Amino acid sequence: MDASGRGHTAAGASRGGFRAERAADGRYRWQLKAPNGRVVAITPAAFETAGEAERSFDGLRAGADGLTARITHVRDGIGWVWVVPGSRNLPEVRSSRAYERYATCQNAFRRFVVLLAKQPPRELPERAVPLRRADGR
User: Fold this and answer.
1) Which of 20, 97, 119, 135 could hold 53 in an S-S bridge, CB 3.0 to 4.6 Å?
2) Global confidence as pTM
3) Quick one: DSSP state of residue 64?
4) What are 72's strand-pairing partners?
């Protein structure tokens, strides 16, 4: 986490790479940036800690080769977005913006998968184990 407590950036990710940020509601969401600094993917899911967001990203990164996307037309407006469905068909990750053409959206997803696979494995903090009080609670 940076000094302001607002985000957690992977080493060397000032322009590109993984970044977990704290939202206004106090929960964390992650995004993946291209080397040029443009956000290419975001997670709609919210996590209680930056560590949970990192674990989610690392799980996605580990399975990058097998990812498939659902490309859909945006509801309000013009364009196409890609979405990787997760458990219970809730989006695990999605494009950060809409694309004018279907084929451009397909190519953006392919570039996302390549970028995701290039991300280095992360050293994840251990999950916090709640301490038990002496009275057993």
Assistant:
1) 20
2) 0.75
3) G
4) 81
Beta strand 91-95 with 70-73: parallel, antiparallel or unpaired?
unpaired
Task: Tell me how many helices (H) and strands (E) the chain has.
Answer: 2, 7
Confidence band (pLDDT; 50, 70, 90) for 91? confident
pLDDT, mean over the chain: 82
Per-residue pLDDT reduced to its tens digit, 11-59: 444 578 999 999 999 999 999 999 999 999 999 989 999 999 999 999 9
For the chain, list the strands marked E by DSSP: 7-9, 17-22, 28-33, 39-42, 70-73, 80-85, 91-95
Alpha helix (H) ranges present in the chain? 50-62, 102-118
Tell me how far CA of residue 106 lies from CA of 16, 70, 74, 119, in angstroms.
21, 10, 14, 21
The answer to whether the beta carbons of residues 91 and 83 sit under 8 Å apart is yes
Cα four-point dihedral sign 27, 33, 37, 38: negative
Instruction: For Cα atoms 89, 91, 94, give the angle at the middle one, nearest 5 degrees.
Output: 145
